[in-house]
Amino acid sequence: QVQLVESGGGSVQAGGSLRLSCAASGRTFNSDAMGWFRRAPGKERAIVAAISWNGGSTYYADSVKGRFTISRNHPKNAVYLQMNSLKPEDTAVYYCAAAARPVLVYDQYEYNYWGQGTQVTVSS
User: Are 53 and 83 in contact (CB under 8 A)?
Assistant: First the structure.
């Protein structure tokens, strides 16, 4: 059974940091692009960051540029999202996803596998 499991969410004050992890099992995603998405209260799910199969290309939503960093670890079959200088508007459920393509994927509908999500709450 293919699974993506997120961890590392929690509550933090504005200006703080969190590191989200996404561990994959059931198959290797080392040849696939991966991404992080989030769904804020009352809003639709939106892309936060994406990374190509080898980590050579990355994408960030304008709202997180300069604050968030996406990375991946092939031996661990995992992807990470380092979140610094967190703001209350970053509060959301964060999802890890994997696409069956090696290059950057921006459209959530092109992602085939999804995690269950992890809550991030940033207080002011």
Answer: no
CA dihedral 57, 60, 66, 67 (to 10 degrees): -120
- Asked whether the beta carbons of 10 and 100 are under 8 A apart, the reply is no
The per-residue pLDDT for range 1-46, each reduced to its tens digit, is: 889 999 999 999 999 999 999 999 999 999 999 999 999 999 999 9
Average pLDDT, the chain: 96
Whether residue 51 has pLDDT greater than 90: yes
Query: What is residue 50's predicted lDDT score, i.e. its pLDDT?
Result: 98
89: its two tokens? 């508007």
Whole-angstrom Cα distance, residue 53 to residue 45?
23
pLDDT of residue 15: 98
- Separation of alpha carbons 100 and 7, rounded Å: 22
In whole angstroms, how far apart are CA 124 and each of 4, 16, 39, 110?
A: 31, 10, 19, 35
